[in-house]
Design goal:
The protein is α/β, with parallel strands linked by helices. The protein has a six-stranded parallel sheet. Helix 2 packs antiparallel against helix 3 and helix 9 crosses helix 12. Helix content is 43%, strand content 15%. It has 13 helices and twelve strands. The chain folds into two domains: 166 residues, Rossmann fold (3-Layer(aba) Sandwich); 150 residues, Rossmann fold, CATH 3.40.50.2000.
């Protein structure tokens, strides 16, 4: 098959969406499909970084015009598209990683207005265009009120695998993620202030890092280690040194970092939000926590000290093996061949 992948970001400088596109593209290339990548470069990339949603609308408008001129591909795979106009090609297949539908509820002032506006633009895209879609979590379909095939994200189970032996003292947590409003990083600092005997290793950077550092200093915390942005290759080693993975986000699609931690045999302590609830339910391991509750630390302590936290290591790895990128890519190919 000749496949065009249209994505707003791509490695090496990207987050989850670009990494998903790259992982599937690599698998497709291994079985001799012809892969082409359309992504913003130079000025286009700068516009997105500077103007956020408006930059995305500008770029996807250029993609739409390109698609409407292009008839040489078997499949045009688009990721989180924001087309305001009509796409003429019947070869477009969209994967939706996250939705703007309910995100404005968690924020105030300008951020709330921003997400509300993006929700409106997103609705225009999927109302005017009826291309087939997949979602990385069933909750995304519910939020957007659309019919879509559920294809989860994947993980490289050969790269991310359990160490010969985890520690069993239940005293080290790992978080890999941006320090952005969506990730709710200050809630993680607050939690750690109530768990002085627990260590947190935190890999990631972002706009809220100064606030995070200020909060750590104000609370005089010595149990948090900030690594900043790290190379993807060292994440398996970070997982090997941890007892559990933790994420306090307000909103997620299906985070690759959680699947990578699970593939390394780490049980996960996740926000009590629908998409992460779904992941815990499917895998049969880990827990969800309302991090705004004053009793959140008690729930975390009880879990870390429980036998379930030990047995969940095996359940986590078992689930991750079902999400190996090779298997996920086969699901996409099966869907695309229905065209």
């Amino acid at each position: 098959m000749k496949i065009l992948i249209c994505v707003q970001e791509y490695p090496p400088d990207c987050s989850g969406i670009g990494n998903v596109a790259k992982a599937v593209a690599d698998e497709l290339g291994c079985v001799e499909h012809e892969i082409h990548i359309l992504m913003p470069l130079g000025k286009g990339s700068e516009i997105i970084k500077k103007y956020y949603g408006l930059g995305l609308l500008f770029w996807w408008n250029k993609v739409r015009k390109e698609i409407n001129r292009e008839n040489d591909f078997d499949i045009i795979w688009v990721h989180n598209p924001l087309f305001l106009g009509k796409v003429k090609s019947d070869k477009v297949y969209a994967t939706i990683h996250t939705s703007y539908a309910d995100r404005h509820h968690n924020y105030k002032s300008f951020t709330k207005i921003y997400y509300f506006a993006m929700k409106f633009f997103e609705k225009i895209c999927y109302t005017r265009n009826k291309f087939r879609c997949s979602v990385v979590s069933p909750q995304v379909s519910k939020e957007m009120k659309i019919d879509a095939k559920y294809i989860p994200n994947g993980v490289d189970t050969n790269k991310f695998k359990p160490p010969l032996r985890h520690g069993d003292d239940g005293k080290t947590l790992l978080c890999v993620g941006r320090m952005s409003p969506q990730k709710n990083p200050l809630a993680l600092v607050e939690l750690m202030s109530k768990l002085p005997w627990v260590k947190l290793v935190w890999a990631g950077d972002g706009d809220l890092r100064p606030q995070v550092e200020a909060a750590i200093k104000e609370k005089n915390l010595t149990n948090i280690t900030l690594l900043g942005r790290v190379n993807q290759d060292i994440i398996p080693n970070l997982c090997a040194g941890a007892d559990a993975y933790i994420l306090t986000s307000y909103y997620e699609g299906q985070p690759l970092t959680v699947l990578e931690a699970m593939s390394c045999g780490l049980p996960c302590i996740l926000s009590d939000i629908p998409n992460l609830n779904q992941l815990v339910k499917e895998s049969g391991c880990g827990i969800v926590v309302d991090f705004s509750s004053p009793l959140a630390n008690i729930k975390v302590i009880d879990y870390l000290r429980s036998k379930k936290a030990i047995t969940d290591r095996y359940a986590a790895r078992t689930y991750a093996k079902k999400c190996d990128w090779k298997l996920i890519t086969e699901q996409y190919l099966k869907e695309w061949k229905k065209q």
